[in-house]
């Protein structure tokens, strides 16, 4: 087995995407609007969006909490996988991002299923008082432990928690790095390891977004 190169993993990602992910005009339009608005190109990959959809279907998820909306790409993908009575609550710190996302969500016909709340998630979450079946954390990494604590508070045992961008080009395993986003990612992973409310693993990914990964956790019964 040879070590992967950027050309090889991007070619493989393109092949897997073309083979396993059906074209979606609304997602393509949302991504185009995000690019036109100059938002950062940090949305999930198409394969990761499909993974989120499958987790929703496998887990029979009806209520999703998303922390970090950006332009609404992942929001739309997840909302499409929900049953008719499903709901996504997505929290976005930047009002401009939220405006772009809301327009794309409405064009996709999902504004009745999705609510985008504007504000720093650490400030918004204390006022959220409902139960979710899946939490997707994709915001500032420095606050991952705060978000995980709220994820535990707002879910039942058996719920799914996904944390994006946990490998960060391999820097997560470099003890010499002084990047606070990496430090915040590490703190989140360490919390998943030691907190009895979670049972978790993590996977590295190589795709068009580069070298990264995600953590996948189940909300555990801490009293069991």
Strand content range:
15-25%
The string of secondary-structure elements, in order, is HHHEHEHEHEHEHEE
Q: Quaternary status of these chains? A: single chain
Overall structural class, as computed from helix and strand content, comes to alpha/beta
Described by strand count, sense and barrel closure, the largest sheet is: 7 strands, mixed
**What does the average pLDDT come to?**
95
Describe the structure.
The chain is an alpha/beta fold and 224 residues long. 41% of the residues lie in helices and 23% in strands. The chain has eight helices and seven strands; from the N terminus they run H-H-H-E-H-E-H-E-H-E-H-E-H-E-E. It has helices spanning 6-20, 25-36, 46-58, 73-81, 95-107, 121-124, 144-153, 180-194, and strands at 63-67, 87-92, 114-118, 132-137, 155-164, 198-207, 210-219. Helix 2 packs antiparallel against helix 5 (95-107). The model has no long low-confidence stretch (mean pLDDT 95).
């Amino acid at each position: 087995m040879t070590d992967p190169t950027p050309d090889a993993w991007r070619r493989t990602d393109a092949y897997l995407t073309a083979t396993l992910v059906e074209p979606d005009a609304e997602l393509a339009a949302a991504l185009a609007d995000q690019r036109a608005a100059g938002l950062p190109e940090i949305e999930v990959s198409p394969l990761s969006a499909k993974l989120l959809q499958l987790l929703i279907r496998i887990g029979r998820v009806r209520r999703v909490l998303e922390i970090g909306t950006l332009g609404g790409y992942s929001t739309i993908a997840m909302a499409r996988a929900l049953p008719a009575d499903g709901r996504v609550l997505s929290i976005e710190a930047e009002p401009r991002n939220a405006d772009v996302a809301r327009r794309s969500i409405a064009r996709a016909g999902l504004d009745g299923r999705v609510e985008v709340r504007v504000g720093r998630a650490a400030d918004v979450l204390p006022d959220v008082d409902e139960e979710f079946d899946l939490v997707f954390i994709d915001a500032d990494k420095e606050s991952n432990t705060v978000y995980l604590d709220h994820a535990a508070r707002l879910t039942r045992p058996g719920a799914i928690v996904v944390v994006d961008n946990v490998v960060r080009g391999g820097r997560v395993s470099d003890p010499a790095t002084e990047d606070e986003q990496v430090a915040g990612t590490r703190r989140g992973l360490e919390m998943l390891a030691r907190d009895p409310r979670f049972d978790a693993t993590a996977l590295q990914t190589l795709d068009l977004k580069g070298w990264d990964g995600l953590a996948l956790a189940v909300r555990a019964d801490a009293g069991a």
